């Protein structure tokens, strides 16, 4: 029972200690495989492969980072594999050959992939950092079959950053590049993959694998890429410093775990020492025979094997046979001089001991087989040599007979041994009883008490009260250490899990996990507050988030939430402006928008301002205030497709006016764009509609209105003739200039103006 307790305690301590220190590969590193992609590039004589990784601020992912030399010789498609080897093509957005880096833009953004955060701190601070290289080395592809998942095929190798220093070995060699000297194994195909730390933050891009020393490889520091990303307006997640693990923030945890290991070692040593003192010593019979003179006398052999005789006799009486009477299966106790058979779990043949019938395809074994094996064992112990194998004996068996005849035994016993090892099973004894009888071994010798052969335990002295007290104190101390270590392991594991959930922005799970721990340290309390703030942020409770994060600015994850809070608050306030426009409250929206720009200090003509203006123009367009929308889009015509949007607003407004019969307004709206080739048809239709409307108003004697219509299109058809006529009619009294009215009457009757030259 004590031994069981010791073993159980050791197992608990070791498992707890190992669990506390977590897996050899941290979970964020395993998660980073989801963001690592396989790259296949068409080249002149086939294709080449490499690795890459996703960047951005959220899903979907649009950009992939890799080495320039991966795509340098590209002559055709660049194929990105992810997920279940789904393929999407990519184009080279930015080439940086001097730094051996490239940015690829996906033809179709990937919504199922998360971007990796990039390290934005000082490169020199990375020296000594534990890192992991992720990628698709070609050697692995040659040795192993692919699975159905890119994630599962990512190869991970680990090591440390040995040094951070400038180098001309990267890129074109025209300039120095900040390089990371690493002892992480890199191979062809790893190029372009991410080099991440234990928190899954990218610190470099795997680039060079040394052919001279596998422990001397190189990666381009990710700092070489950040300035280009900023200049190109490509957003990305960043971390100025790795998120400290629970052990880093609580250094006392490591000594606690070490104490657990020491305690476990002490218990193991005590248990082993105790076991050496109390257990009986035994060796395999073949070992004992090899270490002694190789053989025994007849009387000693009978004495030694008497427990085995008992085992065989009981088995045969019960209709069983043992079929494994080989020296390696027999345990010999030197102090007692006795041997017992330990039946093997699986039957096997043993040359010199297995009977002939055991070699047949369908063995016909029985007690006679045990008799053969026991006879062979007698032969080995008495002669010092192993019985020849069955095939050799079948060809000629003179040696067996000669060796038995040379023994100092009475003829009857020699004959009994020869009969026991006969190749013909019908000539052997039927069972162990007959064999023992022929050897003249008495029943009292053959049936001893097996318990009497076990090693007698030494009589223990009565334990003194002082020793009992020591054992009691040691036991209590050991249990206390065990309990402390168990809780320490659980604490570390739970704390690390909470950090991982925070990193993955799973705030509810992080809060639930960290809440399992008592708030023993300020760090636990703060992580709980950050997790709660993340949950409230998702629920839109911004004021509560501000209160919870106050004073926690030094936490990277708090900064992430505060940045998200700032963005969401800004977006929420702008949404109010947007909604007012949609509801037709244009004046109120203008006032609120002005306050919004002043509050967030957004300058005119900045990229952010243009984006907001673009959205505001979209809102006006949705609200069918096309002219206001056109004015807004025209003010940012160099932003995205704003000019096209402005033209779309005018066209939509013109069509709406035309549909309502306001052809003059429609033509006026199109004034700025009337020379656009794609609008000529629409302009012609509206012009013709104005002409027909002017003509119609003349026939209705509405000369003033007709003059308005023809004035809008003076050069269209004979509009100028109508204008001359209408001018004269409108400037003179009808009673004095009847001839003009006669002309108008002719228009009404004939449908056209005769003798138009008369009125010019």
Shape designation: elongated
- Count helical runs: 30
Helix content: 40-55%
Residue share in β-strands: 5-15%
Radius of gyration: 48 Å
The order of strands across the largest sheet is 1-2-3-6-5-4
Quaternary form: single chain
Structural class: alpha+beta
Segments where pLDDT lies below 50 for 5+ residues?
12-23, 243-252, 275-279, 443-459, 733-737, 753-760
Strands, total number = 17
The largest sheet, given as strand count, sense and whether it forms a barrel, is:
6 strands, antiparallel, barrel
How far do the termini sit from each other?
Answer: 129 Å
Give the mean pLDDT: 82
Transmembrane segments: 252-272, 471-492
GO molecular function, one term: serine-type endopeptidase activity
InterPro entries: Kinase-like_dom_sf, Peptidase_S1_PA, Peptidase_S1C, TPR-like_helical_dom_sf
GO biological process, one term: proteolysis
């Amino acid at each position: 029972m004590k031994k069981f307790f010791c073993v159980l305690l050791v197992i608990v301590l070791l498992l707890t200690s190992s669990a506390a220190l977590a897996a050899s590969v941290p979970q964020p590193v395993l998660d980073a495989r989801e963001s690592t992609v396989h790259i296949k590039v068409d080249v002149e004589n086939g294709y080449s492969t490499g690795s890459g990784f996703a960047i951005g601020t959220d899903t979907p992912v649009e950009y992939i980072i890799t080495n320039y030399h991966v795509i340098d010789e590209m002559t055709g498609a660049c194929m990105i594999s992810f997920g279940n080897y789904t393929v999407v093509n990519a184009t080279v957005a930015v080439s940086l050959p001097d730094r051996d880096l490239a940015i690829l833009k996906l033809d179709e953004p990937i919504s199922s992939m998360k971007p990796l955060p990039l390290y934005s701190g000082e490169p020199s601070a990375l020296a000594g950092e534990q890192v992991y290289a992720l990628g698709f080395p070609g050697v692995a592809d040659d040795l192993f079959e692919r699975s159905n998942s890119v994630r599962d095929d990512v190869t991970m190798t680990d090591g440390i950053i040995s040094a951070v220093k400038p180098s001309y070995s990267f890129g074109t060699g025209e300039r120095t590049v900040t390089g990371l000297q690493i002892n992480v194994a890199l191979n062809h195909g790893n190029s372009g993959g991410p080099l991440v730390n234990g928190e899954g933050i990218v610190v470099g891009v795997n680039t060079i694998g040394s052919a001279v020393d596998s422990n001397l490889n190189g990666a381009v520091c990710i700092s070489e890429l950040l300035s280009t990303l900023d200049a190109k307006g490509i957003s990305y997640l960043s971390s100025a410093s790795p998120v400290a693990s629970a052990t880093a923030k609580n250094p006392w945890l490591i000594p606690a775990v070490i104490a657990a290991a020491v305690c476990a070692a002490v218990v193991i040593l005590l248990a082993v020492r105790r076991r050496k003192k109390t257990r009986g010593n035994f060796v395999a019979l073949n070992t004992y025979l090899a270490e002694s003179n190789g053989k025994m006398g007849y009387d000693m052999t009978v004495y030694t094997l008497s427990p085995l005789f008992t085992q065989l006799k009981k088995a045969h009486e019960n209709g069983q046979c043992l079929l494994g009477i080989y020296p390696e299966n027999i345990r010999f106790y030197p102090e007692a001089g006795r041997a017992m058979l330990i039946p093997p779990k699986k039957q096997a043949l043993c040359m010199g001991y297995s009977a002939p019938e055991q070699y047949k395809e369908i063995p016909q074994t029985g007690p006679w087989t045990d008799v053969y094996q026991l006879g062979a064992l007698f032969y080995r112990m008495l002669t010092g040599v192993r019985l020849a194998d069955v095939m050799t004996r079948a060809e000629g068996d003179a040696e067996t007979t000669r060796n038995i005849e040379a023994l100092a035994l009475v003829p009857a016993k020699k004959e009994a041994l020869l009969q026991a090892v006969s190749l013909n099973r019908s000539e052997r004894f039927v069972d162990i009883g007959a064999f023992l009888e022929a050897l003249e071994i008495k029943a009292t010798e053959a049936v001893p008490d097996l318990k009497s052969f076990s090693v007698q335990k030494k009589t223990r002295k009565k334990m003194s009260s002082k020793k009992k007290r020591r054992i009691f104190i040691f036991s209590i101390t050991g249990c206390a250490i065990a309990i402390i270590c168990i809780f320490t392991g659980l604490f570390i594991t739970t704390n690390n899990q909470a950090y991982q959930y925070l990193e993955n922005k799973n705030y509810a799970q992080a809060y639930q996990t960290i809440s399992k721990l008592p708030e023993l340290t300020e760090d636990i309390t703060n992580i709980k507050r950050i997790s709660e703030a993340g949950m409230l942020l998702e629920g839109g409770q911004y004021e509560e988030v501000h209160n919870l994060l106050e004073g926690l600015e030094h936490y990277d994850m708090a900064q992430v939430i505060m940045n998200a809070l700032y963005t969401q608050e800004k977006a929420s306030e702008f949404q109010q402006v947007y909604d007012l426009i949609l509801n037709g409250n244009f004046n109120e929206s203008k006032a609120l928008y002005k306050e919004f720009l002043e509050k967030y200090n957004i300058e005119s003509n900045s990229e952010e301002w243009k984006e907001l203006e673009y959205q505001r123009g979209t809102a006006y367009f949705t609200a069918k205030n096309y002219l206001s929308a056109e004015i807004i889009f025209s003010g940012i015509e160099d932003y995205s497709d704003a000019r096209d949007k402005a033209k779309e607003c005018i066209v939509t407004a013109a069509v709406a006016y035309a549909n309502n019969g306001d052809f003059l307004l429609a033509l006026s709206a199109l004034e700025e764009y009337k020379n656009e080739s794609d609008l000529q048809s629409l302009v012609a239709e509206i012009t013709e509609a104005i002409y027909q409307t002017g003509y119609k108003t003349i026939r209705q004697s509405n000369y003033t209105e007709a003059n308005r219509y023809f004035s809008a299109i003076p050069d269209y058809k004979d509009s100028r003739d109508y204008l001359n006529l209408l001018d004269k009619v409108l400037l003179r009294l009808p009673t004095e200039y009847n001839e003009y009215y006669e002309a108008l009457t002719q228009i009404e009757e004939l449908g056209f103006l005769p003798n138009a030259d008369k009125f010019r």
